[in-house]
Amino acid sequence: MTENNTPANELNSTSELAVRREKLAALCEAGRNPFELTRFDRDAFSEAIKADFDAYEGKDVKIAGRITGKRVMGKASFMHLTDRDGKIQVYVKRDDIGVDEYADFKKYDIGDIVGITGFVFRTQTGEISVHAKEMVLLSKSLLPLPEKFHGLKDPELRYRQRYVDLIVNPEVKRNFVIRSQFIKFLRNYLDNMNYIEVETPVLNTIAGGAAARPFITHHNTLDIDMYMRIATELPLKRLIVGGMDRVYEVGRIFRNEGMDPKHNPEFTTVELYQAYADFHDMMDIAEGVLSGAAKAIHDSYTLEWLGETVDLTPGWRRLTMIDAVKEYVGIDFGAITDDAEAVAAAKAKGVELAEAAEKTWGNALYACFDQKVEEQLVQPTFITMYPVEVSPLTKRSPKDPRLTERFELFICRSEMANAYSELNDPLDQRERFVKQAEQRARGDDETEMLDEDFLTALEYGMPPTGGMGMGIDRCVMLLTGADSIRDVLLFPTMKPLD
Questions:
Q1: How do residues 55-111 score in pLDDT, each as one tens digit?
Q2: Strand 203-204 vs strand 224-228: parallel, antiparallel, or unpaired?
Q3: 128-139 and 203-204 as β-strands: parallel, antiparallel, unpaired?
Q4: Distances from the Cα of 310 to the Cα of 294, 306, 411, angstroms
Q5: Cα 261 to the chain's mean position, in Å?
Q6: Residues 6+ positions from 286 with CB-CB distance below 8 Å
Q7: At what angle do helices 361-368 and 321-328 cross, to 10 degrees?
Q8: In degrees, to the nearest 5, what angle opens at C-alpha 355 toward C-alphas 353 and 360?
Q9: Which of 6-20, 66-80, 157-171, 341-355 has the weakest average pLDDT?
């Protein structure tokens, strides 16, 4: 079937726009304004009809959708109608729908939305179709769609006009269906573990729970500056103090930072906290959620992402940061006790510490990992036991007070989750907040702010707790094979056009 489309530059011409508005004006003048119609009771969808033709053959159906193809042939015509699920052919005959209605149909444009009442049949060429008996125009498209064979290809335009992208590139919808399936799986997984889903404030007087630069806004009534949340951690841990032993939140997070294929200023995470648990329990949950979702959605543990074949079969590697640096960089920080020696060993491997960071054993260890190891982690790997300097909310290791019971999960060189055995000692927590404040004073505006109310909560007593944050968008990138976070966000942040 050929499309009744002309080249994109012609379709976007002033004359084309004027013609469509003239058609609408003529309909309104005839008392048939399509925008006045309020509903259409459809009872069937394209893919269901094609999947179960034997059950539908010869039966009347009501379908509705957008005209995406049209071929007029005298007294009979064909068109393609695209609905929520897919595309189906419609046969339109003048003698069946009436002379006037057929004349109107011939004037319909690609992109118009119509409702069809008719019966299901198979054409002589074998295509499952609907033979129209009645037709109604439900909405007039005043702007032409991109031409079929060129389509909407420019990524920038696709992200800016996702509504057009979804119309002309229906395969794009797959990513967002998988996103919905993953979030549903995640919620069911946690709900079945007796977690309670909660909601915490998006606007806060203190930006805490992560090392990140916040967005700042102003509350007019209170006349105070407020921060859009950079994490949900501290409010959720307050709930653990309050006796809600298992809580989680799937929520939007805002960080005033750079943009690249893995980062968007607003993104979605799940944070969960479980009393009387530790970071080992969180590892089990992270592995269970991602491997289980892959199996449920794709019926396979093997996925392709960022040019790699990833095996999500349960039993993922767990490696301490010291062991990872020893294996990939060749420095044994377990045999080093002196800060200066640690910094010198890192520099000898071409690793530099951030200017604002103290020149300590822990910062040297983390810099080696961050700059030399992370880029080599392709298969699912839990990196555990982080230095205390970069883990201000994490419980120290009983075996080595320089380290904390923390892990990050890496897949295809990407951080997927971050988890702790949560720090519940209010005195230790205050000391670490003070160190963070000192680092902020030295110019690092991504360090933690001192949260007095959170310290007060800890002083009432928080049980031993395991907590984890997992990036929903990164997980969906993995499950869809997407190279860019923009391909799994319906409306990614874009710089306004001039």
A1: 999 999 999 999 999 999 889 999 999 999 999 999 999 999 999 999 999 999 999
A2: antiparallel
A3: unpaired
A4: 11, 10, 8
A5: 12
A6: 382, 409, 416, 417, 419, 468, 470
A7: 60
A8: 50
A9: 6-20
**Matching residue, tokens 């839990």:** 382
**Tokens read off for 487:** 């391909």
Which phi and psi angles does 389 have, rounded to 5°? Answer: -60, -30
Residue type, 340: A
Residue 1: CA count within 13 A, CB half-sphere: 21
Element (H, E) at 311: strand 308-311
- The pair phi, psi for residue 163, each rounded to 5°, is -60, -40
* pLDDT > 90 in the chain, percent: 84
Predicted confidence (pLDDT) at residue 3 exceeds the cutoff of 60: no
Kindly calculate the radius of gyration of the chain based on its CA atoms and give it in whole angstroms.
Answer: 29
For 350-395, the DSSP string reads T----TTS---HHHHHHHHIIIIIGGG--S-EEEEEEEGGG-TTBP
222 exposure class (CB count in 10 Å sphere: 0-12, 13-18, 19+): exposed
Residue 446 reports pLDDT greater than 80: no
CA dihedral 339, 344, 346, 347 (to 10 degrees): 140
Instruction: Read off the tokens for 431.
Output: 């000391």
Q: With DSSP H G I counted as helix, E B as strand and the rest as coil, what are the percentages for the chain, rounded to 5?
A: 40, 25, 35
**Integer Cα distance of 156 and 456 in angstroms:** 47
How many CA atoms lie less than 13 Å away from 253 in the CB half-sphere? 27
Over the stretch 164-173, which tens digit does the pLDDT of each residue have? Answer: 999 988 889 9
* CA-based nearest residue to 50, from 141, 122, 139: 122
